Amino acid sequence: MSEIDAAESADLVAAWRELLARHAATACALDRELGERFGLGMSEFEVLERLAESRDEWAGKLRVQELGEKVHLSQSALSRLIGRLEKDGLVERHMCTEDRRGVFVLLSEVGWQRYQEARPLHRAVLRRSLMGRQPSCG
Amino acid sequence: MSEIDAAESADLVAAWRELLARHAATACALDRELGERFGLGMSEFEVLERLAESRDEWAGKLRVQELGEKVHLSQSALSRLIGRLEKDGLVERHMCTEDRRGVFVLLSEVGWQRYQEARPLHRAVLRRSLMGRQPSCG
DNA sequence: TTGCATTGATTGCACATGCATGTAGTGTCA
DNA sequence: TGACACTACATGCATGTGCAATCAATGCAA
User: Fold this and answer.
1) pLDDT for the residue A111
2) Between residues 74 and 113 of chain B, which touch chain A (CB distance below 8 Å)?
3) Which chain B residue has the Cα nearest residue A74?
4) Cβ atoms within 10 A of the Cβ of A138, count?
5) What CATH code is carried by the domain that includes residue B74?
6) Does the CB of A74 fall within 7 Å of any strand C atom?
7) Residue span of the structural domain in which B50 resides
8) Is B10 within 8 Å of chain A by CB?
9) Residue segments in chain A with a per-residue pLDDT below the cut of 70
10) pLDDT by residue (tens digit) across B36-46?
11) Is the dihedral of CA B119, B121, B123, B129 positive or negative?
12) Which end of chain A has less Cβ packing within 10 Å, N or C?
């Protein structure tokens, strides 16, 4: 391994550790704070947000598959996450009549309100955690 | 919410999604590839690497607490991870005689070799995943 | 010395995740 | 029409995780 490769490796590792630290700190803070105050995990919020963003164009309705492309979860994890949101009344599942294998996930009114309540905290955590130097967690 | 705040929020969210995507892609690739070829998860490798880095100064021996400061895992997760590494013969646990609450984790010869074997793949994954645009995963 | 708060690490438990599989629906080709 | 490959989503299962409780050791103060 040449010195140049070694230096490049060291840079890569440093960048990766930086990314890991920011991710851990932010994800942990989001999970804790959104969980405490709104009963939402980081990924639950993410799904609500994607649905909320589709509100104008698609009436807050997305197929599970479309959500899967946006959120970094396995298909099974996403399915169960939607189940939890559904149980809490934040979203509804609807059959997709064009393709009856598909399932629409629809943001409920309660879900929309919960999202709007939680959003300022979410942004505050991002601001605090992504801008400043990382606090530790977990 | 003023327009400036809205723009700042949008930037934050964009940065956070970018970070999430890079993290997911890289972590997933590391887990899969290190797992397939060396039976190591991402965090297992990280712990081996921290121990390996302490080899010159501390003979590859760190206290659990010191590891905990470097790796983004809860105390319990780290304890069990060390348990797995120990079961596989990659590290050894030793009582810390100065403070008998503490535990030293010592990189074994097998662990050192495994680390050296796995490192090139680890670096290759980082290079591929951190430099290029993110592939999707999970 | 005794008593008590604190620290370091492990363990019980609940839960979220991913992989593999199952099930139902779609599309294609003969 | 029937067989077959493929897609969308859900579920069984094993595993890794964090929180809270636990246990042992330390340090400090009375």
Assistant:
1) 97
2) 74, 77
3) B138
4) 17
5) 1.10.10.10
6) yes
7) 3-131
8) no
9) 1-4, 132-138
10) 999 999 999 99
11) negative
12) N
